[in-house]
Amino acid sequence: MKKITAIILSLAMLFCSLSVVAFAQDEKPFYLVLGDSIAYGSGLANSKAACYGKIVADTNGYEYVNHSVPGHTTANLISRLSNETVIADLEKADIISISIGGNDFLLNNLIGLMFDSIVKNDHTQYDAIADNVYVNLGKIVDIINENNEDAVILMQTLYNPQSGYLRAPYQAGADRINAAIARYNEENPGEIVIVDVGTALGDDLENFASDEIHPSTKGNEIIAKEVLAKLYELELGESTEPVIAEKGVDIQVPAIMTMMLDVYGYFFHVLSLVYDFFASVF
After folding, report:
1. CB under 8 Å to 39, separation ≥6 — which residues?
2. 65 close to 140: Cβ distance less than 8 angstroms
3. Is residue 38 very low, low, confident or very high in pLDDT (cuts 50, 70, 90)?
4. Fold observed for domain 28-281
5. pLDDT tens, position by position, 220-245
6. C-alpha angle 234/236/67, rounded to 5°?
7. Which long-range contacts (CB under 8 A, 24 or more apart) does 228-233 make?
8. Interatomic CA distance for residues 97 and 241, integer angstroms
9. Is residue 167's pLDDT more than 80?
10. pLDDT the model gives residue 105
11. How far apart are CA 255 and CA 129, in angstroms?
């Protein structure tokens, strides 16, 4: 009788174990995207269906939510993380992708920064902005860990979508933000995983939308591939080849809207030549 009871109990335990395993296999990892217009997919007319976050989710079969907001800075993201809906999704996230930092430059007296960089070769304000990003990144990670210490945080580097005379000041900003991200990673090992989007996008203009700021359809697919490769490396994804459920549609921005920045870049370049001339004379 005891043997029969033991056999029944063993079979019951085995059945329960198999049920738990089957349930766990049915659960989809929860993929949360946070950040700015890059993460939102603002270079695409059909951003919700074709941004890189959606591509990553479709490829690996993740449950997916995107709480990114165009125009957000690191300070804005800190505030966003107090939103009840965002917190609820944060608590159940297995993987969190973050794209943030670019607007800390773009929305902080960009013309003045370009003047300092191109004409005066002075990057003092650039350094101050990057230092603030470093501090805010720490706050963002702390908030995430307070709500979910098990989630893997993927932090993307910044890219440079500009050409001509604007490329140098943009690169100066991107380099400093990326250095701040690298510094945080070095000083806080294991807190974030860096996805080098900046290097992946490079300087190919086809990777950027006609607004000369956001990734194009091709750019979003490249970012998705970088994220997928990192997730595969971390054994959190099954494929490195993006699954495109809906092809992106690039936004069409009139050239006049981007021309002014190009004019500013050329104007500051001429000023720099005049500035250098008088500096050498006097």
Report:
1. 33, 51, 52, 53, 66, 68, 97, 98, 99, 100
2. no
3. very high
4. Rossmann fold (3.40.50)
5. 999 999 999 999 999 999 999 999 99
6. 110
7. 228/56, 228/59, 228/60, 230/154, 230/193, 230/195, 231/56, 231/60, 231/95, 231/154
8. 18
9. yes
10. 87
11. 30
